[in-house]
Amino acid sequence: MFGGDTLYELRCSLQLAELEREGGFAPHVSPFTAVSDLGHLLSRAGFNTLTVDTDEIQVNSPGLFEVMEDLQGMGESNCSWNRKPLLHRDTVLAAAAIYQERYGHSDGSVPATFQIFYMIDWKFHESQARPAQRGSATVSFGGLAKIDGLLSRGKK
Question: Do residues 79 and 88 lie in contact, with contact meaning Cβ atoms separated by under 8 Å?
Fold first, then answer.
């Protein structure tokens, strides 16, 4: 699942260009989920052991138009109900210039960052063993360094 920081370069460039050219902006990139929202949603569904891992992948493209073409090919067009149906040509050209200026690399390419969430969660069943209380351990992790000596003594 894409996270909230996905495509921040594209979103910022479009917003700045639209503010400059049209005096306001509308969302042109679908909204993405914050990790805290995932936790709240899953806990309300009764799950209680959530683990979330995140990756950030940066893909380089020749420019804004190629990024938008790749997104369309991925099926990632804006799904917002209240979005503007079109984006003016001069606004898109300004956004491409802003994208290149603010985020462009020395080789002329621009990054598109994707934040990806990986989640696993489950509910405990009454037949499952429960985890021990925090702080109830009888062995220290510091003692793990001595485990080889204890095992070799036991084999004698």
Answer: no
Only one residue has tokens 């893909």, namely 59
Asked if residue 50 lies in contact with residue 123, where contact means CB atoms within 8 angstroms, the answer is no
User: Can you tell me the distance from the alpha carbon of 148 to that of 151, in angstroms, rounded to the nearest whole number?
Assistant: 5
List residues bridging with 55 in a β-sheet: 116
Q: How far apart are CA 5 and CA 56, in angstroms?
A: 9
Alpha-carbon dihedral sign for residues 61, 9, 79, 59: positive
pTM score over 0.85: no
Tokens matching residue 78: 């804006």
Amino acid found at 68: M
HEC string of 73-98 equals HCCCCCCCCCCCCCCCHHHHHHHHHH
Tens of pLDDT, residue by residue over 30-70, are 778 888 888 888 888 888 788 888 999 999 999 999 999 99
Using an 8 Å Cβ cutoff, are 61 and 10 in contact?
no
